[in-house]
Design brief:
Blueprint: H1 12-17, H2 23-56, H3 59-83
């Protein structure tokens, strides 16, 4: 992972509202907000990819997947029964 440096200017009133008083606090806040934003973008892209995948499946692929899930449901039920003990 390479680190890139970005310089931004924030209004003092915004920093005051966020109760940020030092430059390192501002950096941490901006990094936190950008990380959250990036994660939401990735989540949205992943959701769109899943939707596209499921929309493009053929009926045969869907039937095969349902059969696999049915095959594993027995094992899942056994594990759920064991963990309830």
């Amino acid at each position: 992972m390479s680190i890139q440096t970005v310089q931004i200017e924030l209004p003092g009133s915004l920093l005051a509202r966020a109760r940020v008083h030092r430059p390192d606090e501002a950096r941490e806040l901006v990094a936190f907000l950008l990380e959250g934003y990036a994660q939401e973008i990735e989540k949205t892209q992943r959701q769109q990819a899943y939707e596209a995948y499921y929309a493009a499946r053929t009926p045969e692929e869907e039937a095969e997947e349902l059969q696999i899930l049915a095959d594993f449901s027995v094992a899942d039920a056994e594990i759920a029964g064991e963990s309830a003990l």
